[in-house]
């Protein structure tokens, strides 16, 4: 138990299958990230987020034997979270028109690198403008943009979370980046 | 905050404990995944089979006799298009792609290359089914054993089963003379066939006992029942 924090996720899965108390470590490790993710993709269902989170962890526990160690555990648990949240929203007939991007969560550095911009996007006003542009992107790009620029996932992880081929993820991101860059260039005065 | 985290963790672990929730056994997931692949493969086979039957029906069809049969090509195409096989073909494409996405690994292989490989496999398999004669045998089997099949899938037999329009086919039962033979049509009716200004296509074709043939001619009602005057004979 003393070196439990050094255990990898697949090891914790194996231990949880033998003793459910170990599952508590996985819950603790992921609950904050997943709750934030639920809030982001649901457009902020603050009252229901805990219920969705609980359903996610119960479902993950039931499906522990389905976890494939070739996949990152985080990708797998994000996939379940994504699907549970979408099915919850469908159940309550509440489909968000846009995702909830928080200003502090957006990985500005990754955007700067991905878009090879010559300007910095690091001041608050610029970040707010950037956020507005991201929020106005086509809905079809928002899943990948959110995972890439707030959850900091790479292409492989996004592909595994959304169960979309890497090529599709790359295409969606390329098109989203194109839109982003076009908007930033068009509104150069907002991005000094 | 750590207390809050523990609260959520404890709540979930308590629910697992109280509701006696346990992880689903691994074999269930393995079986589910195999079942999904099984449906995909089975669908692939049915897609190939339906495609082979569509191609078989198309290439074995005598498109040039539409003038004798109905007179209108568009009507003829409409009547003889095997819509049921087209429907099955499309339905199983949808089913295969649905279950392919349901497999654990499927999404990794969704690409243009996979699509091309799948299409090639279906074409190869369909060709094999046609070349080995399986599609023809299956069509015959469906015609004889499946109720209503003939209503939905009309084939060459139906074109050549219209003696009143001058089209008749079947198996030669007996050669009576140089100009007369007995024929059993595919509905098992016996016909007395008399030749008149006969044209055999191809000319080297010989009408023999036991051979299947198709004929153009006319009914001779005044001569008696089931008497057909033939002017063109072709091998089946």
Automatic annotation (TrEMBL), chain A:
Family indicated by similarity: Belongs to the sigma-70 factor family. ECF subfamily.
Keywords: DNA-binding, Sigma factor, Transcription, Transcription regulation
Ranges for domain RNA polymerase sigma factor 70 region 4 type: 128-180
Record domain RNA polymerase sigma-70 region: where: 26-94
One Pfam family here: Sigma70_r4_2
Organism listed in the record: Candidatus Staskawiczbacteria bacterium RIFOXYD1_FULL_32_13
Domain of life assignment: Bacteria
UniProt protein name: RNA polymerase sigma factor
From TrEMBL, chain B:
UniProt keyword Membrane, yes or no: yes
Top-level taxonomic group: Bacteria
Transmembrane segments: 34-59, 79-100, 112-134
Keyword entries, A-Z: Membrane, Transmembrane, Transmembrane helix
Name of the protein in question: Uncharacterized protein
């Amino acid at each position: 138990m003393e070196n439990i924090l050094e255990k990898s996720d697949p090891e914790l899965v194996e231990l949880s299958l033998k003793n459910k108390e170990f599952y508590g470590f996985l819950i603790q490790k992921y609950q904050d990230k997943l709750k934030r993710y639920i809030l982001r993709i649901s457009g902020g269902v603050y009252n229901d987020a805990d219920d969705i989170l609980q359903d996610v962890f119960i479902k993950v526990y039931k499906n522990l034997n389905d976890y494939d160690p070739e996949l990152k555990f985080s990708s797998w648990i994000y996939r379940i979270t994504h699907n549970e949240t979408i099915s919850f929203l469908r159940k309550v007939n509440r489909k968000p028109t846009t995702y909830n991007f928080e200003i502090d969560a957006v990985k500005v550095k990754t955007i700067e690198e991905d878009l090879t911009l010559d300007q910095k996007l690091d001041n608050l006003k610029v970040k707010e403008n950037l956020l507005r542009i991201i929020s106005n992107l086509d809905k079809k790009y928002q899943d990948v943009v959110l995972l890439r620029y707030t959850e900091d996932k790479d292409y492989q992880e996004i592909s595994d979370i959304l169960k979309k081929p890497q090529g599709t993820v790359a295409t969606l991101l390329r098109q989203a980046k194109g839109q982003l860059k076009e908007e930033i260039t068009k509104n150069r005065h907002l991005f000094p | 905050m750590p207390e809050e985290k523990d609260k959520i963790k404890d709540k979930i672990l308590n629910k697992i404990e109280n509701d006696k929730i346990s992880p689903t056994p691994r074999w269930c997931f393995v079986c589910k995944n195999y079942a999904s692949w099984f449906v995909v493969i089975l669908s692939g086979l049915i897609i190939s089979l339906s495609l082979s039957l569509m191609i078989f029906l198309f290439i074995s069809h005598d498109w040039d006799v539409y003038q004798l049969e109905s007179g209108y090509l568009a009507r003829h195409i409409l009547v003889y298009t095997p819509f049921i096989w087209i429907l099955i073909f499309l339905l199983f494409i949808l089913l295969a792609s649905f279950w392919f996405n349901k497999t654990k690994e499927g999404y990794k292989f969704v690409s243009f290359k996979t699509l091309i490989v799948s299409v090639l496999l279906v074409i190869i398999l369909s060709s094999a089914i046609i070349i080995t004669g399986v599609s023809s045998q299956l069509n015959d089997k469906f015609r004889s054993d499946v109720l209503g099949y003939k209503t939905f899938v009309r084939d060459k037999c139906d074109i050549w089963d219209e003696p009143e329009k001058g089209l008749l086919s079947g198996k030669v039962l007996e050669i009576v003379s140089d100009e007369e033979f007995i024929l059993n049509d595919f509905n098992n009716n016996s016909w007395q066939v008399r030749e008149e200004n006969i044209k055999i296509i191809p000319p080297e074709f010989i009408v023999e006992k036991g051979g299947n043939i198709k004929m153009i001619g006319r009914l001779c009602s005044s001569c008696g029942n089931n008497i057909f005057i033939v002017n063109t004979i072709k091998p089946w």
